[in-house]
Write a structure and sequence with these properties.
Blueprint: H1 14-23, E1 26-30, H2 37-42, E2 47-50, H3 54-62, E3 74-77, H4 85-95, E4 103-107, E5 124-128, H5 134-137, E6 144-145, H6 146-150, E7 157-158, H7 163-172, H8 183-186, H9 188-202, H10 209-221, H11 229-236, H12 243-262, E8 266-269, H13 280-283, E9 287-290, H14 294-300, H15 304-309, H16 311-331, E10 336-345, E11 351-358, E12 363-371, H17 375-390, E13 402-409, E14 412-415, E15 421-424, E16 428-429
Parallel strand pairs: 1-4, 1-5, 2-3, 3-4, 6-16, 12-13, 13-15
Antiparallel strand pairs: 7-14, 8-9, 10-11, 11-12, 14-15
Length: about 425
């Protein structure tokens, strides 16, 4: 028996979920609201209980064993509503004496760690689901594979990308519920998402909804930048910061950012350097991105027409779209690190948008440019990085496996004379 929804579109992580179910007693699917966790679980599960239902939750709080009843794999949807269920599942897996694929847990937030006794290591694995990539929504033809690039697989081809379409895709986002909607209807999804998000977390966390939204607007306004807490605090308090309240403001900003990270809304891109033990990996400020580009677009109140007119903003939100897809594609690779997508910045003002690092030390460098007229700038940055890493005696893997410029609009998917791939975002897949 399957609970698969007839509207479910296959996700790139479906195969990973199957692998995890064969290897572990339980699998947790985490991710933001509305990204498709429940539908994905239902495509692989045989029974289900939903803890977002208040009546069901009351019964489960009284008797945890009720949550485990059902055909296997049994789905426990929004399990974090009763955090102590984690240990109940772990104990059930232990008692099953090596049986695999018993439970699928889904969650849109990270529960307080003190409410669980054991990590679940070795019993419960975790898969991170994000909104859909362009390949999953059908807006990429998948002619270029990220994993294939690491194997040296690439072919020149014609490209079919249009900036009007890209602007629409930025504003629409990768929400499964928006796939079949027209652009005007689809843009309501991220706005409604933000309203639902604010109302759901404001009261629970004792946070001011107005300030929570202003924090997100600050991050949206500064997408692609490594912001200091002081800068964000100034945006939230409308510049009204003095020495007396500065420390408290920074602490408040950190707490609010953690709220959104726990809800899988904010993603952090850490710094990278070729030597594994380099200080740069921990001392370069992390960049904060949104899980989907439609969220900063909604927070800034911009649509397709405004993006077409404002090339700088369009470029930043396009970068958000590409980072989302690169994270999704990298997460499908067994050889990729959990935080495989990083960025590079040094004291010489050289910055490269994305570095993808594998467990065996192989790495790739990717620049993100909106259109062909910026490709050569990206190529120059990549060649500078390659030269710097090659001259670093501490670099364990001085040569990148490949370098690429990911673009929105170009005529050809090709390789430049410098050996850099030029790849439209509408051609890429895992």
């Amino acid at each position: 028996m399957t609970l698969r929804n007839e509207k479910y579109r296959d996700r790139l992580l479906d195969d990973n979920l199957k692998k995890h179910l064969r290897a572990f007693g339980a699998v947790e699917i985490v991710g933001s609201m509305w990204c498709g966790k429940t539908w994905m679980a239902e495509a692989h599960g045989s029974s289900k209980i939903n803890l977002s239902n208040a009546n069901v939750r009351t019964l489960i709080e009284a008797d945890h064993s009720l949550a485990l009843i059902g055909d296997r794999p049994h789905i426990i949807d929004e399990w974090q509503e009763v955090p102590t269920l984690w240990d109940e599942v772990r104990i059930a897996v232990d008692s099953a004496a090596g049986e695999r694929g018993l439970y699928i847990l889904t969650g849109s937030s990270t529960p307080r760690k003190e409410e669980t006794i054991h990590s679940g290591t070795g019993r419960i694995s975790r898969i991170r689901l994000r909104p859909m990539s362009l390949y999953e929504t059908g807006n990429s033809d998948g002619s270029v594979s990220l994993s294939g690039l690491f194997r040296g697989e690439f072919s020149n081809s014609r490209a079919h990308a249009d900036l009007q379409e890209i602007a629409d895709l930025v504003c629409k986002g990768g929400w499964p519920g928006a796939i079949d909607l027209d652009p005007d209807s689809a843009k309501l999804i991220p706005n409604q998402y933000l309203d639902t998000l604010m109302s759901s977390i404001g009261g629970k966390n004792g946070a001011n909804e107005y300030r929570l939204r202003r924090l997100l607007v600050s991050l949206a306004r500064n997408t692609g930048q490594a912001l200091a807490y002081h800068t964000i605090a100034g945006d939230i308090l409308e510049g009204d910061i003095d020495e007396k309240n500065e420390i408290a403001s920074r602490q408040s900003v950190e707490r609010m950012i953690n709220i959104f990270k726990d809800r899988f809304i904010i993603e952090e891109t850490t710094g990278w350097d070729a030597p594994v033990r380099s200080k740069s990996r921990v001392r370069v400020k992390s960049k904060r991105s949104f899980v989907d580009p439609s969220l900063p677009a909604a927070l800034l109140g911009v649509g397709k027409d405004r993006l077409i007119e404002d090339g700088q903003l369009f470029g930043r939100l396009f970068e958000e779209l590409c980072l989302r897809d690169l994270r999704i594609y990298a997460s499908c690779m067994d050889s990729a690190l959990p935080d495989a997508v990083k960025y590079y910045r040094d004291s010489d003002n050289l910055e490269v948008d994305a570095i993808i690092e594998l467990r065996d030390g192989r790495w790739a460098a990717i620049e993100i440019k909106l259109s062909d007229n910026k490709v050569q700038e990206g190529v120059r940055n990549l060649m500078r990085l390659k030269s710097k890493v090659a001259s670093n005696p501490l670099a364990q893997n001085p040569e990148p496996t490949f370098m690429a410029v990911l673009v929105g609009k170009t005529e050809f998917c090709r390789k430049t004379p410098e050996g850099v791939y030029v790849i439209p975002c509408t051609s890429l897949t895992a």
